[in-house]
Amino acid sequence: MVNPETSIQSQENAVVQPDEETPACPASAGRKGWKILRQIGTVLSVCLLAQGIAALLPVPFPASVIGMVLLFLLLLSKAIRPHHLQEKAGFLVENMAFFFIPVGVEIMQYFHLLKDSWLPFLAVCLLTTVITFAATAFTVRGVAALQEHLSARRAGNAAVSPTSEIAAGEEGDGDA
User: For the segment 4-27, what is each residue's pLDDT rounded down to a tens digit?
Assistant: First the structure.
């Protein structure tokens, strides 16, 4: 039979190891919550500003595109730092598939309109997917090459650019 006094005493003396998910103190959990709320507020503020700009434009223009351009400009000008949006952006990217469910449901509601033209619709979807993949691949290769070139320049080992070769060739021709 277990003695209740001994089990209580052993529980009191036990050292509890915090898990990785459990914050060390409740205050750190509160700070993380406020940080995420600030990130959500930043994203929603940019979206609201984009909606306002779209409403003021004389021509119809998607507010989502305006919002992306605004966010890009804010990041470029360093008014917003990437770490200000990191956790929120990570959450959105990890759960991106979830956001396509309403679109799929909406398409199924209008299936009666699409059933007669499903083949051209499918062809356009496949073609634009291939074009998007190709554009993304070329963009990634270009950005990687640019980053490599810039890091080599910073290290002092910059490859000779075509303009510097031309300038060096002109100097060499003039001396001969």
Answer: 554 444 444 444 444 445 455 455
Tell me, what's the pLDDT at 27? 52
pTM: 0.47
Number of C-beta neighbours around residue 50 at 10 A: 21
Token pair recorded at residue 42 = 């930043």
C-alpha to C-alpha distances, 142 to 72, 133, 135, nearest whole angstrom = 19, 14, 10
Is the distance from CB of 158 to CB of 152 less than 8 angstroms?
Answer: yes
pLDDT score recorded for residue 150: 92
Question: What is the three-state SS of the chain?
Answer: CCCHHHHHHHHHHCCCCCCCCCCCCHHHHHHHHHHHHHHHHHHHHHHHHHHHHHHHCCCCCCHHHHHHHHHHHHHHCCCCCHHHCHHHHHHHHHCHHHHHHHHHHHHHHCHHHHHHHHHHHHHHHHHHHHHHHHHHHHHHHHHHHHHHHHHHHHHCCCCCCHHHHHHHHHHHHHHC
Locate the domains of the chain by residue range.
24-94, 101-170
Segments in the chain below pLDDT 50: 6-20, 22, 25, 158-159, 176
- Which of these, 37, 69, 40, lies nearest to 53 by C-alpha position? 69
